[in-house]
Amino acid sequence: MAANFFSANPSTKKLGKEKERVVDPNLQPWVEKYRPKTIDDVSSQEHIVAVLEKTLNSTNLPHMLFYGPPGTGKTSTILALSRQLFGPDNFRTRVLELNASDERGISIVREKIKNFARQTPRAQTVASDGKTYPCPPYKIIILDEADSMTQDAQGALRRIMETYARITRFCLVCNYVTRIIEPLASRCSKFRFRPLDSSSTTTRLQYIAATEQVAVTPPVISTLISTSSGDLRRAITYLQSAARLSAASIPPTEITARDIQEIAGVVPDSVINGFARTLGIDVPAGVDESGDVEMADAPNGSLRGFELVQEKVKALMREGYSASQILTQFHDLVILHPTLNARQKSNCALIMAEADKALCDGADEELWILEVALRVNKAVA
Amino acid sequence: MLWVDQYRPKTLKDLHYHEGLSQRLKSLAASGDFPHMLFYGPSGAGKKTRIACTLRELFGPGVEKLKIDQRVFLTPSRKKLDVNIVQSNYHIELTPSEVGNYDRVVIQEILKEIAQTQQVDLNAKQRFKVVIINEADSLSRDAQAALRRTMEKYMSNMRIILCANSTSRLIAPIKSRCLLIRVAAPNHKEMKTVLEYVAQSARAGKIPDEAAEDIVRDSNGNMRKAILVFEALKMQTPDLSGPLSIAKPDWETYCHKVGDMILQEQTPQRVMDVRAKLYELLSHCIPPTIIIKTVAERVVQGVDESLKADIMHWAAIYENRMRIGSKKIYHLEAWVVKVMSLYKHFFYDMDMSGFEDGF
Prior knowledge:
The complex is a heterodimer of chains A (381) and B (359).
Chain A: H1 2-21, H2 30-33, H3 46-58, E1 64-67, H4 74-94, E2 95-98, H5 106-118, E3 139-143, H6 151-163, E4 168-174, H7 182-187, E5 189-192, H8 198-211, H9 218-228, H10 232-248, H11 257-264, H12 269-278, H13 290-297, H14 305-318, H15 323-335, H16 342-360, H17 365-380
Parallel strand pairs in A: 1-4, 1-5, 2-3, 3-4
Helix pairs in contact in A: 5-6, 8-10, 9-10, 9-11, 10-11, 12-15, 14-17, 15-16, 16-17
Chain B: H1 3-6, H2 19-31, E1 37-40, H3 47-59, E2 67-74, E3 80-87, E4 91-94, H4 103-116, E5 129-133, H5 141-153, E6 158-164, H6 172-177, E7 179-182, H7 188-201, H8 209-219, H9 223-236, H10 250-264, H11 268-283, H12 288-301, H13 305-324, H14 328-347
Parallel strand pairs in B: 1-6, 1-7, 4-5, 5-6
Antiparallel strand pairs in B: 2-3, 3-4
Helix pairs in contact in B: 2-3, 4-5, 7-8, 8-9, 10-11, 10-12, 11-14, 12-13, 13-14
């Protein structure tokens, strides 16, 4: 007990100091708050976790390249791993985290990274929280969002990685492995992070909701999962935003699936269905006749053909929905449509692919949605 | 002072439409747990007004004391950049896209600087400062990537409010870190209410129903435009009676003239004339996208139904090429010639199959 008392004292003091500087956890984004503390906590990436567990025991670590879609736990995994390896005290001196918000041109690689890589790590000291950490004799440099590094900067890393391999390990984290130059990729062992399956997302979301005392219903969870498409961070952010909104409104209301959709920027199904009906696609929402429903919210019932489509697109744009979102949802509707034939569907897909490219290039949204509308109209006629 | 500025709502409860949204913003500001936000919607829908109102709700009237500052940044290649910054004690507002490709530098420098210092004013209502980034959809990829981690890391000292016309060009990681707030354009009834309110506050007497109807229809969901037009009309005919002629902006009539010229005659000579007009428009800083859209809309009004879709199709194609290419006039002209050839072929009822795919 006595030993505990002595060792506990400085750590609490330090914690208190930390508290002043950092915000209280209530104001923290939940993504940060619920970042896994150990690699066991990482959701759904069993294979990677199993491999990394071994390194914890053997204290040997290769250079690593983590890649996968956003929100699958790449950054969390490496942060948790380094925390477990070094403990809170050595973390600062042993780990260098650089991401896209830091200047990462070739000069930084040559100076900052090289200098850090060159230092021999200091001898291990006793951890302040009384636990023992493996604290292996190397440092870790985490290059987050490495796919936004220039080719030159990546090139400059090549030799550094080899020269200081004895005392420094690199961990590159990126979304697109193809943007990492081949010589770098071949120096690392690659780990692919899969999009999260819905069961582990559900578990995690329910855990967070329970800890934060937010009431969520199964439909809300399933909406969260469908709108975030395997991106856990997005799902958590949406959940937090929804919780904030519902708690802040007077009187506090329950979170509904519609709230989540609005937060996620998803266009309501009725709007997309209305749009599809205007273009002459039968939407099986219990309404067979395309004309009847449409005329209700069309500003002028006498419009036909081109004008009708143009007017509808204008109305859609005035509502402020994002074109890419409309396109995504409209695409799902058309591709999964039960009665359109394969030829019509492929024609539609062709048009949407073109429009997506144009939107990525920054083309005008209204023109392109109109273009999609007109050509889909022609394709399904 | 213009009516638009004079009668701009200052607090959330003065806002006229989207009550649900105002209520949400109000409660968010009161909760102390304020997220990063992304306001998006068509122009003139009231995004900036809502941002300003939210800020006031957060910090009180102190945010209205603005000062304009010019800051100089150095790029890694030692090039100097001037950026205009509007700031109060509690917030800072900037448009990084005005420095083009170097917006990343501005984002990195300014955000870090703000993020690493705490709120100085001890009496401030909130512990954080707010950074407003205008025209967020024209930020370069690099700049957006630079925002990603900063938004998470410095959450304790700063909140970011992004303001954009559309979310299409924002990368997914940014969208997933923000609370998305869609500000739709007001509908006709809401616009009329606002116009009546402005008329009343300006002691301009009652606004006749037909006049309001005309203004609303003309402005196409753009509240700012509607109020500007209203004020202009009021100056012309104080009692707003009788048939009103809403003066179209010069560039619009000019564009319509171009559209008519294309339909009147399809000859090389006419192409040259149109070209001169297009140059004139471009040299007056009318964005080429607006030109092609306005002209195209005019042209489709005057052609046969079967041609309309094609004309819009080519407008979309050439507008896209314009963005990728560097010289706008080429693509504008190419479109004009395309439309002329389509029109002429249609008139002489010739086989159009050779022109389906272009060359």
